[in-house]
Amino acid sequence: MMSTQAITLRAAGRTMPTGLVAKVATVAAALALWQLLSATRVLDPDTIPAPTSIAVAAARLAGEVPFWHAFGLTLTGWSLGLLLSAAIAIPAGLLLGSSDICYRSCRFTIDFLRTIPPVAMVPLALLLYGATTQMKLVLIVLGSVWPLLLQTMYGVRQIDPMSRETARSYRLDRLRRTLFIVLPGASPFVATGVRISATMALLLTIGAELIGSAEGLGNGIGLAQSASDVPRLFALIAFSALLGVAVNAFFVTVERRALAWHVAHRPSPGR
Q1: Burial class for 268, CB neighbours closer than 10 Å (0-12, 13-18, 19+)
Q2: Which example biological process does GO assign this protein (predicted)?
């Protein structure tokens, strides 16, 4: 007689591949439909090339050293911008979220500044730094610092008041309260903010390269557009999209493993 636990494990093992197969089948069906529309010329191949043409261009790109150099520059700008944003947003969010006076006095300023589109700052950044990595970093930080700052502030303010009172009753100093009460309580919000900021930082990196002509994948997209090389253009866009998916999947995995102790990431009893 097979135990209930064994049946559950086998069912879980069958369910996981099924979800993966469904995702792959959906993508394959979409690509097949796209190829069919291109073959029947419902879609103009000079404007929207067929997936096979994009695949050939992507394979050609993967064999070029300049492409990987541009890919590395994009990753470098993204990672440095995200690190700078985190270094600014997390400490500031902890400070502003812990003080009612600071929170109320700075909230309007934060709401005002975060509504300024980073793209609108491109002319100023180009004037100050030119088409350099510094220009990219300025635009990345201006756009990606706000989600992480707000999430950190909200996380601190959502901490259970009973935990704060317990820490005060035990006369814990500010450093210990921060390490053992504030940071663990706000960590799910901070992790969500990092994930959102990481995606936004990548978008701003490629956008800064495209608009500001700094070296990277975005600049390659602009050059392909200028040369009317549509398959190469779509191949670069596809690589950028895959990079975005990989970045999001990486941070989701890190968040689940780092916060496995938190109730939000524990499996429900019914699963």
Answers
A1: exposed
A2: transmembrane transport
CB 204 within 8 A of CB 120: no
Q: φ and ψ at 252, to 5 degrees?
A: -65, -45
Number of domains composing the chain: 2
Residue matched to tokens 């004037």: 127
Pair (244, 190) in one structural domain: yes
Token couple for 102: 């600071």
Same domain, 129 and 19: no
Residues 168 and 209 in one domain: yes
**Residues 14-44: pLDDT tens digits?**
444 677 788 888 888 888 888 888 888 888 8
φ, ψ for residue 242, nearest 5 deg: -65, -35
Q: What angle do CA 150, 75, 199 make, to 5 degrees?
A: 30
pLDDT tens digit sequence for 82-133? 999 999 999 999 888 888 888 888 888 888 988 888 888 888 888 888 888 8
- Both 157 and 108 in one domain: the answer is yes
- 178 and 199 together in one domain: yes
Would residue 271 count as lying in a domain? no
Q: List the domain range (segments joined by +) for residue 18.
A: 1-43
